[in-house]
């Protein structure tokens, strides 16, 4: 198998590079704006929209995990097994999308 690209392949790489160099600064600006929007929405704690931009806020939550199956029922009679229980808290998250007209 050859590592040499075809003429068409080279054209694809060149087009990709050109477009990437053109868009990279704008993508960086978008990422900064997105970070700011997410921070604002997390502060108000609810989903919102403006124009075609929809921002969904998912509240944080906790999830309980057990080290092995069946410990829930067993723990009723043997509370000492609760030491094996772990709890994880999930942070709130925000997603942003632009809807088509």
Radius of gyration: 25 Å
Strand content: 15-25%
Tally of DSSP helical segments:
2
Helical coverage, percent range: 40-55%
Sheet with the most strands, sense and barrel status:
3 strands, antiparallel
The tally of domains stands at 1
Class derived from helix and strand content: alpha+beta
Distance between the termini: 47 Å
- Strand element count: 5
Task: Break the fold down into its secondary structure elements and pairings.
Layout lengths: L6 H38 L3 E3 L2 E6 L2 E5 L5 H7 L8 E5 L2 E6 L3
Antiparallel strand pairs: 1-2, 2-5, 3-4
Describe the protein's architecture and organization.
This protein is of the alpha+beta class. It has one domain (7-98). The protein has two helices and five strands, in the order αβββαββ. A three-stranded antiparallel beta sheet has the order 1-2-5, covered by helices on one side. It has a two-stranded antiparallel sheet with strand order 3-4. Strand 1 and strand 2 (53-58) form a beta hairpin. The two termini are 47 Å apart.
Please tag this protein with its features.
alpha+beta, 45% helix, 2 helices, 101 residues, elongated, two-stranded antiparallel sheet
Short description:
Helix content is 45%, strand content 25%.
